[in-house]
């Protein structure tokens, strides 16, 4: 039994497009995120360095004028002067000395300054900074210790105990960052569109040889064994195309050889059957004469004569069947159609063989089942099925005919031949119409030629009909033939 493998859902094209698109999305998003991170860091770092440098320069310019130890008023003046050194930015400055502190703006609580940052400036005597979020947006807080003669880190001067803190809003930097985010988003959408288009083009390029392979495979299945694929490149798909071409060539050669062998076998069977007909005709004439004189012969000779006569009849039937099969194989079998009453033809077929009392019939009324058929081939169909039921089944044997009218098609004459025997074994059912098939390999002799059911099936198919074999639920076999009832117009 041939199995059809299920195809994955969505199709290979869609899966390739999705895979390429996902890779493109991940690459685009990752690149955008890394680019944004690097640009944001550089932007904030540059703004931070600028603020710290300007703040340190402002402290250096004002610090020499501070008297020590400073009073709160001195700290207030110092913070205000430092704030004024940068007029382009909104600086808020806080100066501390010991427990004293003052801000450049009266009443400014300097909430952004954390105790940890204040301690770091006092204990480590180092410049510290921190980005914080406030209710008005992000801000940068910077703390610088004031040394005698210098505010540098190199420790060349002693700490004065004076510390200065700066809070500067980073609205402009945040605006730059937001603009950067918007730019990345705007760039990401076109990049994704381009990536999807590239994915479609890549999928199309990958699937082109796959589609060609599918089309070639379909042509091979339709019998065009000369089909070959054009091979381009040396990748895996090219290798697959090479393999397909080699397989197709081997298949074409094998099929050609099988056809040559089959043609020789058919020609041999036809030639042998033809050559046997003449001597068989002579043998049949002789056995007819001997049969007439058998009553006057001694018993042993009479038995031998009757045996020869029976075997001659069987051999003649086998030769006739072989000739008939040869005509079917050669496509030389034709129909001689005539409009007849199929029910009446069935009655005559049974009566001519003396089966009218042996086989029960259930036939439609006269002229109900009229159609154009070949009367001789219809007789062969009925005789072979009825004879098969009598030989291999058990009585009672019944033959029934009904007329069915499927919508949109010719009426059908359905003939069923049923016996009451043991039925057909399940492993034999698929082969009942095969030539010379024997369900019991130990049986080397049969009453028939082994071609009766095969010839029956060929005659049915020649009429455009169907034939099936099955087992009845109550026991016995049933053969069903459906013939179209075409009428004269």
Describe, in plain words, how this protein is organized in 3D:
By secondary structure, the chain is α+β, with helices and mostly antiparallel strands. It has 3 domains: 166 residues, 2-Layer Sandwich (Beta-Lactamase), CATH 3.30.450.20; 94 residues, Helix Hairpins; 147 residues, Heat Shock Protein 90. It is 52% helix and 16% strand. The strands form 3 sheets. A 5-stranded antiparallel beta sheet has the order 2-1-5-4-3, sandwiched between helices. Strand 1 and strand 2 form a beta hairpin. Helix 1 crosses helix 2, helix 6 packs parallel to helix 9 and helix 8 packs antiparallel against helix 9. It is rod-shaped. The relative contact order is 0.06.
Question: Notable features of this structure?
Answer:
489 residues; alpha+beta; Beta-Lactamase; Helix Hairpins; Heat Shock Protein 90; 3 domains; 9 helices; 12 strands; 52% helix; rod-shaped; disordered N terminus; HisK_dim/P_sf
CA(first)-CA(last) distance = 43 Å
Number of strands: 12
| CATH architectural designation of the largest domain | 2-Layer Sandwich
**Quick one: CATH class of the largest domain?**
Alpha Beta
Total number of distinct structural domains: 3
Q: Any idea what the shape is?
A: rod-shaped
Helix count from the secondary structure assignment: 9
Structural class: alpha+beta
Helix content: 40-55%
Instruction: Briefly note the CATH topology name of the largest domain.
Output: Beta-Lactamase
Task: Give me the CATH superfamily of the largest domain.
Answer: PAS domain
Order of helices and strands, N to C? HHEEHEEEHHHEHEEHEEHEE
**Beta-strand share of residues:** 15-25%
Mean pLDDT across residues: 78
Largest beta sheet, briefly?
5 strands, antiparallel
Radius of gyration, in Å, reads 52 Å
Q: How would you write the strand order of the largest sheet?
A: 2-1-5-4-3
Uncertain regions spanning at least 5 consecutive residues: 1-10, 150-156, 441-445
């Amino acid at each position: 039994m041939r199995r059809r493998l299920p195809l994955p859902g969505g199709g290979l094209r869609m899966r390739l497009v999705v895979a390429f698109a996902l890779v493109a999305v991940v690459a685009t998003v990752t690149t955008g995120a890394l680019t944004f991170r690097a640009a944001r860091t550089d932007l904030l770092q540059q703004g931070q360095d600028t603020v710290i440098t300007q703040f340190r320069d402002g402290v250096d310019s004002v610090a020499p004028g501070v008297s020590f130890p400073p009073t709160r008023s001195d700290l207030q003046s110092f913070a205000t002067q430092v704030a004024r050194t940068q007029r382009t930015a909104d600086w808020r400055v806080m100066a501390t000395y010991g427990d004293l502190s003052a801000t450049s703006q009266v009443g400014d609580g300097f909430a952004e300054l954390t105790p940890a940052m204040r301690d770091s400036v006092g204990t480590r005597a180092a410049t510290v900074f921190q980005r914080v979020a406030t209710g008005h947006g992000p801000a940068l807080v910077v703390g610088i210790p004031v040394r005698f003669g210098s505010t540098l880190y190199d420790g060349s001067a002693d700490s004065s105990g004076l510390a200065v803190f700066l809070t500067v809003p980073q609205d402009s930097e945040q605006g730059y960052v937001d603009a950067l985010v918007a730019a990345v988003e705007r760039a990401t959408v076109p990049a994704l569109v381009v990536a999807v288009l590239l994915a479609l083009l890549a999928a199309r390029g990958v699937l082109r040889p796959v589609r060609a392979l599918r089309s070639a495979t379909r042509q091979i299945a339709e019998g065009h064994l000369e089909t070959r694929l054009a091979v381009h490149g040396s990748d895996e798909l090219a290798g697959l195309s090479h393999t397909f071409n080699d397989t197709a060539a081997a298949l074409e050669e094998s099929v050609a050889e099988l056809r040559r062998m089959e043609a020789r076998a058919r020609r041999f069977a036809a030639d042998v059957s033809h050559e046997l007909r003449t001597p068989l005709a002579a043998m049949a004439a002789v056995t007819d004469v001997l049969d007439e004189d058998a009553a006057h012969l001694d018993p042993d000779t009479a038995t031998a004569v009757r045996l020869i006569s029976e075997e001659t009849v069987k051999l003649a039937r086998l030769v006739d069947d072989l000739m008939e099969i040869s005509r079917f194989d050669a496509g030389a079998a034709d129909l001689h159609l005539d409009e007849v009453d199929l029910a009446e033809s069935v009655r005559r077929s049974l009566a001519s063989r003396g089966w009218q009392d042996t086989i029960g019939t259930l036939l439609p009324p006269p002229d109900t089942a009229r159609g154009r058929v070949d009367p001789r081939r219809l007789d062969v169909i009925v005789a072979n099925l009825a004879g098969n039921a009598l030989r291999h089944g058990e009585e009672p044997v019944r033959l029934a005919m009904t007329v069915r009218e499927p919508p949109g098609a010719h009426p059908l004459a359905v003939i069923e031949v049923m016996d009451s025997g043991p039925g057909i074994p399940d492993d034999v059912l698929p082969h009942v119409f095969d030539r010379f098939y024997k369900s019991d390999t130990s049986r080397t002799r049969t009453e028939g030629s082994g071609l009766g059911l095969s010839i029956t099936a060929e005659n049915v198919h020649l009429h455009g009909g169907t034939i099936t074999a099955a087992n009845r639920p109550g026991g016995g076999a049933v053969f069903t033939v459906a013939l179209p009832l075409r009428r004269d117009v």
